[in-house]
UniProtKB/TrEMBL annotation:
UniProt superkingdom: Bacteria
Glycoprotein recorded as keyword: no
Protein name (record): NAD(P)-dependent dehydrogenase (Short-subunit alcohol dehydrogenase family)
Organism the protein comes from: Leucobacter exalbidus
Record carries keyword Oxidoreductase: yes
Listed GO MF terms: oxidoreductase activity
Taxonomic lineage of the native organism: Bacteria, Bacillati, Actinomycetota, Actinomycetes, Micrococcales
Family classification: Belongs to the short-chain dehydrogenases/reductases (SDR) family.
Gene3D superfamilies registered for this protein in UniProt: NAD(P)-binding Rossmann-like Domain
Keyword line: Oxidoreductase
Length: 259
């Protein structure tokens, strides 16, 4: 079966795309998809060795520039250094994907610690706010660009097991609409509201439970990681030139359900 990253048109040739949380999961798929379509890529995550490994892979496979950078996306001040390095080495950013996220487990709501809550909000909301402000303002004063926030179905369909995460992602969708107003018309800001995907995190899930749960979804399955690519490339490219402030569900139909 041909995947969505095989033999693509070079619709992003000459562009520079930054993906946070870019060394694994959905982030890795987007990095590979952008590189396959001709973009130079900046791969950002906390573990530099993972970024370097993927950078080597995409350079070899697609012949593009790939810059690996270690950065903690929940650290407000670290975003300034990240942006300075990217612009210092590559000169500009055309596409920014705020993908880094975390949703740690907790035994009960009363057991959620302040430290856990703050970490979840920092990575999923505070970091994207600061990075979008820094990059978006530069895009706005330059040649424009596209910013893509990776949200979650938890923003609209929260459960007791992911409330801090869902609240942070709901906030990210608010930021999407607000930044679209702040930096339009030169910068487009959109979000992908992702449903359940079978990324590396899913290795710890019960596949029997996944199969049972997905029966209720319109597509009756969870997503493959490469299925984020279509929406991401659309929003990164000129194909979405009249799309901003939008939240696009890529969730197997979960958000269409009434219960």
């Amino acid at each position: 079966m041909q995947t969505q990253t095989e033999h693509p048109e070079q619709v992003l040739a000459g562009r520079i795309a930054v993906v946070t949380g870019g060394s694994r999961g959905l982030g890795k798929e987007m990095v590979r998809a952008f590189a396959a379509r001709g973009a130079d890529v900046v791969i950002v995550s906390r573990k530099l060795e993972n970024c370097e490994a993927l950078a080597t892979e995409v350079r070899s496979e697609f012949g593009v520039t790939a810059l690996p950078i270690s950065c903690h996306m929940g650290d407000w001040d670290a975003q300034d250094g990240l942006v300075e390095r990217i612009y210092g080495e590559l000169g500009r950013v055309d596409v920014l994907v705020n993908n880094a996220g975390m949703s740690p487990l907790y035994p009960s709501l009363v057991d959620v610690s302040e430290e856990l809550f703050d970490k979840v909000v920092s990575v999923n909301l505070k970091g994207p706010f600061r990075l979008t402000a820094l990059v978006g303002s530069r895009m706005d004063s330059g040649d424009g660009g596209s910013i893509i926030n990776i949200s979650s179905i938890a923003a609209e369909r929260p459960t007791p097991s992911d409330l801090p995460y869902g609240a942070a992602k709901a906030g990210l969708q608010v930021l999407t609409k607000g930044f679209a107003q702040a930096y339009g018309p030169n910068v487009r800001v959109n979000a992908i509201m992702a449903g359940p995907f079978l990324t590396d995190v899913s290795k710890h899930w019960s596949m029997d439970a996944v199969a049972e749960k997905s029966k209720a979804y319109p597509l009756q399955r969870f997503g493959r990681p490469d299925e984020i690519v279509g929406a991401a490339v659309y929003l990164a490219s000129s194909a979405s030139s009249f799309t901003t402030g939008a939240v696009i569900a890529v969730d197997g139909g979960r958000s269409s359900m009434t219960t």
